[in-house]
Design goal:
Layout lengths: L28 E5 L3 H13 L3 E5 L2 H11 L3 E5 L7 H10 L8 E5 L4 H9 L4 E4 L4 H38 L6 H15 L4 H13 L9 H4 L7 H8 L1 H9 L9 H6 L20 H15 L11 H13 L5 H25 L6
Parallel strand pairs: 1-2, 1-3, 3-4, 4-5
Length: 357
């Protein structure tokens, strides 16, 4: 079994204490996109002295191509350019998954409020006015390059966690696309009960990461077909604590950790790992648990057939009567499933050609 006793060492971003080059030994790249050659030359001169590799582009389209080729750490972007202006360039960069983390600093002689608002709306990270102030340029570029690299480290760490979660799911071929279904249903049900955008994101991430701790459970227990012994049950139950240790070092996982740790708690306090009861159970864990149970009931497993939606809802109602689930949430979920069924029937009826000629 893997040892996660020192999970705090996982993917923690490291920073340099050097005051010369903004981060590690890799020379940071800055792309200057400006149709005025004099402005580009000024920026190149100032930034080269600071130890940056400076790339240049004289138009919006050329700048987008240079981003793809050069993978810069920061972009200084002129607003007023013929053809594709700086706002459009920034919008395209921020909509692209591959370039969204690159900080964009608008360089402009415009000081009007409207231009700054437009820059913020398209995702700009900062503004600098012409002519450049050398100290201000140096300070802002250094800060944003450092932040960009830290964000990249964090993004990579999150991807590692999701990869581990996928590996865990692949160890058990009987679960199929369980995680993908939980993500989709988490988003839909979260919107139905009007959760915040952040809570919906955490609910979706919980779909992938709720069982990540099973990476530390031996195959002999995880893949066992029959009933667990009391010792095996204790080992299996420990996966929620392992999962918490794996994800805890990342601050972006703070909203997901309650789901990972508490999605096996019960409303009456008979669950694990802490025996929490009622609203002592984190709310998102309660929401996620209902989605998780419903998907398990309606999916085929080696030890059971896939129940129909009506049968699954009835079983959940019975468990609620036993005191295991939050009655209000189960009622909301039941209404959600029935409303979804009605929409599917309506869509089918409207999409199928009429049998009447």
């Amino acid at each position: 079994m893997l040892d996660f006793s020192d999970a705090s060492t996982l993917s923690r971003p490291q920073t340099s204490s050097s005051d010369s080059v903004p981060l590690d030994s890799d020379q940071p790249k800055v792309l200057v996109i400006d149709d005025h050659s004099s402005s580009r030359l000024t920026a190149v001169a100032l930034l080269s002295v600071e130890g940056y590799e400076v790339l240049e582009a004289d138009s919006g389209p050329a700048g987008l191509k240079r981003v793809t080729e050069g993978n810069p750490d920061l972009i200084l972007l002129d607003v007023m350019m013929p053809g594709m202006d700086g706002f459009e360039v920034c919008r395209r960069l921020k909509e692209d998954e591959q370039t969204r983390l690159i900080p964009v600093v608008f360089i402009t002689a415009l000081n009007d409020k409207r231009s700054r608002i437009m820059g913020i709306e398209v995702g700009g990270d900062d503004f600098l006015s012409k002519p450049f102030d050398r100290l201000e340029l140096s300070a802002r570029v250094k800060s944003l390059v450092r932040q960009k690299r830290l964000n990249e480290d964090l993004d990579h760490a999150e991807q590692v966690l999701f990869s581990i979660a996928c590996a865990v799911e692949s160890r058990d071929p009987n679960t199929g696309d369980h995680c993908e279904r939980l993500v989709a249903m988490g988003k839909a049900f979260g919107e139905y009960i009007q959760l915040s955008r952040v809570d919906i994101r955490n609910l979706m991430w919980g779909g992938y990461l709720h069982d990540i701790g099973k990476v530390g459970i031996p195959d002999a227990v995880l893949l066992k077909k029959g009933a667990f012994t009391s010792e095996e049950r204790e080992i299996m139950n420990h996966h929620v604590m392992i999962g918490e240790k794996i994800c805890k070092p990342l601050r972006t996982m703070a909203g997901v950790i309650p789901i990972i740790r508490c999605h096996h708690e019960r409303w009456d306090g008979s669950g694990y790992p802490e025996g929490l009861a009622g609203n002592a159970i984190p709310y998102l864990a309660q929401v996620f648990q209902i989605i998780d149970i419903y998907d398990a009931l309606t999916s085929e497993r080696p030890y059971k057939r896939a129940f129909t939606q009506a049968e699954a809802l009835e079983i959940m109602a019975q468990e609620t009567a036993k005191g295991w689930r939050n009655p209000k949430l189960v009622q909301q979920f039941t209404e959600f499933i029935k409303s979804t069924q009605s929409e599917e029937v309506s869509t089918t009826l409207h999409s199928e050609p009429s049998a009447i000629s």
